[in-house]
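DM from R.C. (forwarded with permission)

"hey, sorry to bug you on a friday — could you get me a structure for this? deadline for the figure draft is monday and I only need the backbone to look sensible"
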Amino acid sequence: MALARSKRRESRVDYWPGFVDALSTLLLAIMFLLSVFVLAQFLLSQEITGKDVVLNRLNAQINELTNLLALEQTNRQDVEDQLLGLQSSLQTTEDERSRLERLLAGGAGAAAAAGARADSLSESLDQERLVSQRALSQVELLNQQISALRNQISALEAALDVSEQRDADSNAKIADLGRRLNVALAQRVQELNRYRSDFFGRLREILSDRDNIRIVGDRFVFQSEVLFSSGATEINPAGQSEMTKLAEAILQLEREIPSEINWVLRVDGHTDDVPLSGTGRIRDNWELSSARATSVVKFLIDQGVTPRRLVAAGFGEFQPLDSADSDEARTRNRRIELKLTER
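My reply, with the result:
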């Protein structure tokens, strides 16, 4: 009777672990893609913020130069008005000089007085001409300054156009880089998932004769009793035999996975919720779970597994598979889990 039940149990196909494995992988890929998208958006916002600061600074410089140009134009207008006044005075002086020369021609008696006055007017005329030349020089200098300011404004506008074009090019490159990165990451995830499936399939073949070794989601689970005696942290002889098989599978996996995929095999230690006495070398479940995971990692290294491909972690009793208050639940929760993941 027992033999018949055993045969029926063996003939039943359990699809649930594969479904959980696929769903977990899909969720991890979605979370990873969302993280990459958020990172790309953050980098893009940082780039745009920096360009906005440069644009604001250039706009402030243009406003300052515009105000300076308006001031220079006002000064130029004042000088031009002054020049017009001087030219008017010069014309008046020349008219007066002409009148005096006519008086000189009209009478000898008035010649001496007119001559003296003409000399005075001639000196005044020379001074007016000197002032007019200075005003013209100032106007020419202002014209040169205005031309230089206009050239500077044109250069700033050209630099602003170049900066805006560079921003547009950078944004296009960032978008293209994000798309390419998403594609590359998706390919890496798919490739690692394929190797994970092959690895777990190989472990199923190697360790298929043990009921207390099973797959839960994306993890391969050993019950602690397979590897360790009660309260012990050293792998027992039976556990060493199982770990030797595991090491052979990992070594084959190392040869198959391309070097550019940065993968690790994480070894997680878990305990039940029964507290330790605290008087021995191991004081609590944290230390027990960590010590057991470390023992597995060290044994695999002794079998030739590359140390940088292994990670040991202890979770104590705080990640149970079964939260029921029973001996069966505690037995399930005492375990060593193996998870193939990216670093």
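R.C.: lifesaver. DSSP finds seven helices and five strands in the chain.
me: no worries. The CA atoms of residues 18 and 50 lie 48 Å apart.
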